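Slide 14.
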Amino acid sequence: MVTANAEEKGSMHDWRHDGSSDDKLSNLVKLVPGTSHWMAEMGDRYQNLYWAAKQEKWDFAHYQLEEMEALARIVSRARPNRAETASVFLDKAIEPVEHALSDKDWGKFEKAFSVLRAECMACHAKNDHSFIILPEEPVWASSPVLNMSK
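Slide 15: predicted structure.
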């Protein structure tokens, strides 16, 4: 027979409502996840960025880049030990891609995307994740916006 634990019964102290400010802060810090889920989203955005540009969906590509930038900033805030490498990534990788997208220039984009990939790989290496290798040309996009027929 399975019995409900104290938390399920509602008799356990709920720090979210009843805890002190210190308890709330301590528990929230413990809940801040590592970077793996943000990096999975970053990978999706990387693929979508490439295919949006290739399909000349420049606004959608720009949106993907903005979201990648926001994710790098979140990682910097949530994991301060990653802030330096995230900052280097932001300084070196974002602007060239922004210019290529603004110019709606596939050739310029390919070069800028290569820089972005190199900065991703450098960040992985500096954070002991060099085993995570991004493709130079992603083979598919995760977004249905890019996988629907024209």
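Speaker note: The first helix runs from residue 6 to 9.
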